Amino acid sequence: MDLGIRGKTALVCAASKGLGKGCAASLAAEGVNLVITARGREALEATAAALRERFGIQVTAVPGDISTEEGRQAALRACASPDILVNNAGGPPPGDFRDWDRETWIKALETNMLAPILMIRAVVDGMMAKSFGRIVNITSGAVKYPIPELGLSNGARTGLTGFIAGLSRKTVRHNVTINNLLPGPFDTDRLRSNFQFNAKASGKSYEELRKARAEANPAGRFGSIEEFGDACAYLCSAQAGYITGQNLLLDGGAYPGTF
Ligand code: NAP
What we know:
binds NADP nicotinamide-adenine-dinucleotide phosphate, alpha/beta, 7 strands, globular, single chain
């Protein structure tokens, strides 16, 4: 299926590794030119070079922290008028809510709620003016089934989700859709660091926890960044103009509800 987005430009935030990188690669495979960001320059440049080499598209790498105004402005200077925006950033640390003071909460809100909202604010009017725009926010399965030790994530991402529910119904008339992708367990650095935290907390070994968690998933495994990226690319396709305000869970069936 040709997704009808060849030659368009995507700004993919936090894309040197993991799920953001998967989204960048799937868009690149459709002939989309990319601007990608991450804080660490070395891994970012390496990902950009690999994507250029593999897909023959233009890739601009913009180092910066997307949770800061400076990082966002750098990304927007390189790509003021994207056709596609993928919002992503690292997740907040796990822990006990008693240890989280106001500053900790503000950091989580800035990274996982306000940064995507401010990026959308910067680009959405331009998308509506040209009658095409696709915005995908990488959130978390924790929006649907809160994970106790990830309270910062549960809180910040649910705030973003509520905001998107309203805005996405205003933009779709202009062929600008906004949807959220909710990852369950995907085999990335982020998942590995969560296992390290839980291994310490429970006294079980990292490998033991990892194996048990994969087996407990109805799919019997973790997701791959390629599977995640392809779902993102579809939501960014020309064909997906009637899908907006949705929260698509990619979790191998882990969430047990009917809806
Ligand atoms: P990952 O493998 O650790 O990759 C994170 C990527 O984002 C890296 O490229 C990282 O590069 C970049 N990044 C992190 N913070 C950034 C910031 N403030 N500004 C710019 N770039 C930033 O993580 P992942 O597993 O792909 O997770 C992506 C998101 O999905 C996270 O919010 C995570 O909590 C959420 N999630 C993941 C899973 C899972 O199973 N993997 C499940 C649920 C939710 P630098 O460090 O160099 O900046």
